[in-house]
Amino acid sequence: MIWVVTIAAAITALDQLTKLLVVRYLGETESIAVIPGWFNLVHWRNTGAAWGMFQGFNWVLAGISVLTVVALCFFRHTLQLARPLARLALGLILGGIVGNFIDRIRVSSVIDFLDFQWRGHHWPAFNIADSAICVGVALYIIVTWRSDTKPAKAGT
Questions:
Q1: 15 flagged as catalytic
Q2: Which pLDDT belongs to residue 119?
Q3: pLDDT in tens, 7-50
Q4: Do 111 and 68 contact (CB within 8 A), yes or no?
Q5: 73: Cβ contacts below 8 Å, ≥ 6 apart
Q6: Backbone phi, then psi, for 31, in 5-degree steps?
Q7: Residue 152: per-residue pLDDT
């Protein structure tokens, strides 16, 4: 479990550091083209969830974050944490949840700053915490799916 906590702490720290830099160097709603037509750094605030869903429900989403962390910790014995990739996935998920939770409490919204677009399609802005959650969930699904489809090797 120490690896899960270490990974979660590292993700939370990286997330908060990048958001502090964004707040310090970019005005709110400001956008800087890093790769024109493809990638911008922005300073946007989101009181909702992914893709702008549930706008204005910041405190409800903060409560859901707390409940999710408690549930993940409570049910950790069912999460196949003997597998290193499952520990990595859980650390990414917890670190991302905590990073966005800190924003919700500290500034009453989540700070998003990574803004991508491609061929006229614009992806909603996101942050390190969002990325960690998405990668962690995808990784956990792959780890558990692979464990369900592959027979166990003798001696393991």
A1: no
A2: 87
A3: 999 999 999 999 999 999 999 989 999 999 999 999 999 998 88
A4: no
A5: none
A6: -135, 135
A7: 53
CB 87 within 8 A of CB 149: no
> 12 CB contacts (<8 Å, ≥6 apart)?
95, 98, 99, 102, 129
Q: Which of 15, 103, 112, 115 is catalytic?
A: 112
Note every long-range contact of 83-86, with CB atoms under 8 Å and residues 24 or more positions apart, other chains counting.
83/143, 83/147, 84/3, 85/139, 85/142, 85/143, 86/140, 86/143, 86/144
Q: Can you read off the two tokens belonging to residue 25?
A: 């160097």
Q: What is the pLDDT of residues 45-89, one digit of tens each?
A: 999 888 778 888 899 999 999 999 999 888 887 778 888 898 999
Q: Which of 15, 103, 115, 130 is catalytic?
A: 130
User: Which neighbouring-strand residues pair with 60?
Assistant: none
Give the C-alpha distances (Å, rounded to integers) separating 151 from 82, 84, 86, 141: 16, 18, 18, 17
Q: Is 53 helix (H, G, I), strand (E, B) or coil?
A: coil
Residue 112 among the catalytic residues: yes
The model carries a pTM of: 0.87
d(CA 56, CA 109): 9
